[in-house]
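Quick log. Single chain, no ligands specified.
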Amino acid sequence: MIGLVASTAYLGWSLMAKELVDRQADRALAAMGLADAPRFSVPMPLNTLLWRVVAMTPSGYVMGERSLVADTGPMHFRGFSSNTQALGEVAGFDSVRRLTWFNRGFMRARLVDDDLMLSDLRMGLEPDYNFNFVVAHRENGKWQPIVPRQVQAAYRAPVARDQIGAVLAQMWQRIWHEPRSTALTGDLQDAGAPAAVPASAAR
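-> predicted structure:
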């Protein structure tokens, strides 16, 4: 009985917290001209006090955080680029259609040498996401479909395991402290601008 009450209370709080975050995000995105942008909000790992909101833009996506403990002012977003031009060119590939259906279009496209890698923005933390797939190879200036190949997120690599504690510590600090920055920052670029990384940075 106690477990049922606790789980019901937790669910109720989570829904209320999401509503509070979505309300702030809607206001901020509308002020940025992104009132109709596709978006989602999720709690950060292991808590429901710090939330992440992602909205898609013509050139990539914007991301904001909201602490229900510390934040009092308007919600602020950072912009990130995605290779929307390449993504549009491969949109008809079977593997890309399946991924788009699964993640509802919330994905980042990056060039890794001559390969196109798609990352599910709903799962993971910037810049490393849990699910990354190489879906196409560029040869003689044209994209060729390939058998999708999953790429391990950098933070999951053995050499990066000691960084998890630092990430959790930063998250804990963010819950209790509102950042000083009050402006949209990041690497938001024009629509279709290439987002490319060296192969070593993607593994």
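Residues 23 and 195 are 31 Å apart (CA to CA).
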